[in-house]
Amino acid sequence: MFFQVLLFSCMLLIITLFIKKKNYWKIRGVVQETGIIWRYVFGDRSLSEYSKEIYDKYKEDQIGMYFGYTPALMVKNLEDIQAVLAVDFQSFYKRGIVLNEKDKLGDNILSIDNYPRWKILRHKMTPVFKNIRLKTMFYSIDICAQNLVDLIEKDTQVREKPYNIIYTYTAASIGAAVFGIDTTSKSTIDSPFVKMAWDAFEPSFSTNIKFLLNNMLPSLFNILPIKLFGDHEEFFIGAVKNVLKKRRNSKKRNDFIDVCLELQKNGLMKDPTTGYELEPTDELLAAQAFFFFIAGTETTANGIHFTLLELAANQTILTKLHEDIDEVFKDGKTELTYEDLDNLPYLDMVMNEALRKYPPIGQNQRFCTKNTELPSNKLKIEKGTVIIIPIYSIHRDEKLFPNPDLFDPERFAPDRIKHMEKFSYMAFGRGNRVCIGMRFARIQIKACLVRLLRRYTFAEHSYKPDRFERSTFSIRDSNARYEFIPREL
């Protein structure tokens, strides 16, 4: 039945496109490209790479295209990008991701397009990432990082597929930070959330079909009973309900669950400026917890994975980083503190450069909610237009980052980073919908790198991928390898 509906949808799409005017962007003086979504769905690489081909093909700052029957515009000019993400936010606050009303887990901060609902949830969830709670969650993250290193040492087979074990760490550490450490388990890596994360975020034909329908036939997507994460509702919502029940009469821990309990204790959430009210139900809070996994599991794993690949390929940089990390553990020190991470500026430079070359989210999009115009050339943007922010392409633009394929952490040296053009670096997004968990993700990446690089170095190995895996938003290469070599300390 599903494939019959899909076939009918595709036929409807073809007819619609045939009838629809083909010169929407041309009459506005904008160059036009066609077929990007089809190239991706039936192609062999990431959507961000197809976008980069278009980005590089035209010298113009704006490139018109279609997402189904919806006009879309790729913007390259940084002033336009700043307007879309920040200055003219009221015209572009939507991501344009269609959700079924019954999609309980899809209904989270990351994807919500209802502005009053997004605003109040963003405000209420922001305290999760305040310094005092990040310090608390760091303890769980560091335990997971140590368990990861121990597993690599004990089980040499996991080294054959390094991405898998890094992914396991990111899923387990988020689970530990959100729900606490399971004291009955021998290792935090043995987390029940790891399998769920793999199943939920592994690229698949089904995921690509959902993306195709969501972007090209949003009205039909909304009518059909499609849930982005429907298979995981029972498990995840049940886990949140169970933890909330156990923690209601226990000692405060200054973590995510405490924020949830405080919200429920205070009753209806209300925005004083708009009067909008929202009840903090278990299901709503479960969706916010699920947001951690959506935003952090794969993206953070990719960040760590690509950093290690580049360190293996750049031994001088690897040696320098080893020296800095060893300084943290001098005089027999074994403990890693939250403050230690702030005293590793070269680690920050290395991490930032890896996230430049391989941004966690390769491209972003915004949906125009009212007629407006772009500042660079006063181009009129009609309500309903999708704006594409090609992050991967911008990060590899030689006009912004000379010799962009070179891995050079010095780009992010303090005296150089302050001269970087605004909105040229968007590893965690920018503007009003910048990643709310950015600081958490950085701690997660840095703790893992410190623990791994303290115990291991890597055999020299060049990394020059022909293409990345077919993924809608991320830059991914899960089959790439590096060889762990124990260090003599």
From TrEMBL:
This is unspecific monooxygenase. It catalyses: an organic molecule + reduced [NADPH--hemoprotein reductase] + O2 = an alcohol + oxidized [NADPH--hemoprotein reductase] + H2O + H(+). Its cofactor is heme. One of its GO terms (cellular component) is endoplasmic reticulum membrane. May be involved in the metabolism of insect hormones and in the breakdown of synthetic insecticides. Its EC number is 1.14.14.1. It is found in: Endoplasmic reticulum membrane; Microsome membrane. Keywords: Endoplasmic reticulum, Heme, Iron, Membrane, Metal-binding, Microsome, Monooxygenase, Oxidoreductase, Signal. It comes from the Eukaryota. Its main location: endoplasmic reticulum. It comes from Manduca sexta (Tobacco hawkmoth). PROSITE patterns: CYTOCHROME_P450 (PS00086). Residues 1-21 form the signal peptide. Pfam families: p450. It is a peripheral membrane protein. Heme binds at residue 435. Belongs to the cytochrome P450 family. One of its GO terms (molecular function) is oxidoreductase activity, acting on paired donors, with incorporation or reduction of molecular oxygen, reduced flavin or flavoprotein as one donor, and incorporation of one atom of oxygen. It is an enzyme of class 1 (oxidoreductase).
